[in-house]
Amino acid sequence: MSHAARAAFARGALALATLLAAAPAAQAVEFRSADIHPDDYPTVLAVRHMAELVKERSNGKMTIRVYSGSKLGSEDDSIEQVKLGALTMARVSSAAMHNICPNTRVPSLPFLFRSTDHLHEVLDSDIGTQLLKACEGAGFVGLAWYDSGSRSMYTRNKPIKTLADAKGLKIRVQQSDLSVAMVEAMGANATPMAMGEVYTSLKTGLVDAAENNFPSYESAHHYEVAKYYSLTEHSMTPEILIFSKRQWDKLSPQDQKILRDAAQESVPYMRKLWTEREAKSRAIVEKAGAQIIEVDKASFQNAMKPVYDRFVTTPEMKDLVQRIQAVQ
Ligand code: GTR
């Protein structure tokens, strides 16, 4: 080879090496994940934790960018985008999936879980795995369940102490027909709306009440406009992390495993943060003047039969409910 040819060859080799060095970056994928909660909320921190594990285990090939604080829209918007594959992931309340995949209604059934331990036992068992798959036919791979504590009622004007106090109130609920039915079974009027509209609706009196866990009541500032928090603890609807089935099917089994494992490993991390946040949020709202009220829980519980009758209709759902109740 002549000197000139050798030099040309070396230049070519160098160009090729540069190209190869850039190649992993070219193949690298960044997944976007949506959450309506602020940066310091346990769900957001949990998905960020998952993102770190995924990046490390895929040697930087897969990264996840979490968009918090509704930057990508409401929960319903995100779900639609995930279905289309325009957005890869979303952490949403499983109540937001009720009308899309009916079996997700099961863990939201009123007074179904006896305690947080009971909820964890169920979600960590094959029942939890079965329920995570409930939305695959509708375009969503369920990656993990996250805690959301229990939801309780809060009011603007007067406290709810017993079922009779809920009668006739206009109560904001999540956009789910089960949530609507639950509030109607209490003798109240349900107003389904997105979380982002609740603060103003409470403030202006469009609704008299809403219901949520302590961290959401606190972080969304609802306690400033509805200071009576009544411990009805009527539902323990968990959060769910969903992945677009369209995008999932394009991934290798190895990459799918990295994602699934990392999501699962973010669960205990999230649970720890959740317990801390519940206590912290409760302290914040109490300090700000919110009143925490004990209620006659049995009066609420006794009113829930019509909800079970209407929604637990298929043999599969009946079986799920029975199996959940049997978990010790
Ligand atoms: C919260 C949940 C949110 C959202 C909200 C609501 O507890 O974390 O994802 O669903 O409730 O009431 O809309």
UniProtKB/TrEMBL annotation:
MF term (GO), any: carbohydrate binding
Region forming the signal peptide: 1-28
Keyword NADP: no
Record-linked SUPFAM superfamilies: Periplasmic binding protein-like II
GO cellular component assignments: outer membrane-bounded periplasmic space
GO process annotations (BP): transmembrane transport
Domain of life: Bacteria
Keyword vocabulary terms for this entry: Signal
Keyword Signal belongs to the record: yes
UniProt-listed PANTHER family: DICARBOXYLATE-BINDING PERIPLASMIC PROTEIN (PTHR33376:SF2), PTHR33376
Protein name, per record: C4-dicarboxylate ABC transporter
Species: Bordetella genomosp. 11
Organism lineage: Bacteria, Pseudomonadati, Pseudomonadota, Betaproteobacteria, Burkholderiales
